[in-house]
């Protein structure tokens, strides 16, 4: 006997009644737009989409704590699941607020970790082929420049 998809459905931890209402309003706006195509209905739909997306983003960021993240990682966590968690951490950390509220302390920390100026070293190129290291002669450059079927220009190349 096949199982129903409804029985397997698990709500997300961050989902609440406010999100359900916003998504329902978004669906109603989409239905109104499909019934009567007008710029006003399109504007209403876009407004409802923006509002519901903002609510969902806020709920996701507030609904998942670091403590839950740490407790969800153990020796049974698969590598694919761990990579998903690491992607989440990367996004979460990039959206987080500054760690240093005081700009002076942040600058002093930065200055203590890095020097003011660093001279890049000159790159050294070594080749095993000595013929490639030799200078180009005038005879070689004259032979390499095409003399016919060229585009007209001041340099006449």
Task: Please outline what is shown here.
The chain is mainly α.
Defining traits:
single chain, 157 residues, mainly alpha, 8 helices
Explain the overall architecture.
The chain is an all-alpha fold and 157 residues long. 60% of the residues lie in helices and 0% in strands. The protein has eight helices and no strands. Helix 2 packs antiparallel against helix 3 (39-63). The longest helix has 25 residues, at 39-63. It is extended, with a radius of gyration of 32 Å. The N and C termini lie far apart (81 Å).
What are the segments in which pLDDT stays under 50 over at least 5 consecutive residues? none
Distance between the termini: 81 Å
Number of helices: 8
Number of strands: 0
* Beta-strand share of residues: under 5%
Structural class: mainly alpha
The main sheet comes to: none
Mean pLDDT: 78
Taken in chain order, the helices and strands follow as HHHHHHHH
User: What fraction, in percent, of the residue positions are helical?
Assistant: 55-70%
Rounded radius of gyration (Å) = 32 Å
Shape: extended
Secondary structure layout plus pairing:
Layout: H1 5-8, H2 17-35, H3 39-63, H4 66-72, H5 79-95, H6 103-113, H7 130-133, H8 138-144
